[in-house]
């Protein structure tokens, strides 16, 4: 797909504790490969062009560091995000507990889109024998916090594509987010005609 030709630009953010597999999930989706990656320092950024729901889309996906020392650095990246993916590791209870104790609070604090779509992702289902967080717990959390929910594995790529596609379809189904995504389309976000959200967000680093 020609990079200049797309109907909407959507900004998506991946959050969650360090080591839950955010970077691996993103790599699995954008490159269809798996690597055990070292922890993200600050923020990583990837772009993927997709055809979903009959639309040509440019997805700008921000992968944030889970460590607390980077927390203030990543707060500005919430601005203007149409989709937020909350990731936990089904084999580590504390990564699930921190969703409500840390990450949901951050969304309330920093997210600027009232209608922003949230997707809860339980990663590492390939380690089923080590599972400590049940699927039912994930469903209950998603229901309580108004999230979409899916379990997947970055390693085996189970449900990885579906995770991002379901989130995008929900954004496409939300008129207020759609109008935001149409601003500044067919422009190179790294040149002078930057959409406002990208401009504001890139200034912190």
Automatic annotation (TrEMBL):
Chief subcellular location: membrane
Compartment annotation: Cell membrane
Domain of life: Eukaryota
GO BP terms, alphabetized: protein transport
Entry-linked CDD domains: Rab18 (cd01863)
Family matches, as Pfam families: Ras
A GO cellular-component term linked to this record: plasma membrane
GO molecular function: GTP binding; GTPase activity
Keyword terms, alphabetized: Cell membrane, GTP-binding, Lipoprotein, Membrane, Nucleotide-binding, Prenylation, Protein transport, Transport
InterPro entries: P-loop_NTPase, Rab, Small_GTP-bd, Small_GTPase
Record membrane topology: Lipid-anchor
Alphabetical list of NCBIfam families matching this protein: small_GTP (TIGR00231)
Functional summary from the UniProt entry: Intracellular vesicle trafficking and protein transport.
Similarity section: Belongs to the small GTPase superfamily. Rab family.
Name this polypeptide is given: Ras-related protein RABC1
Organism of origin: Ziziphus jujuba
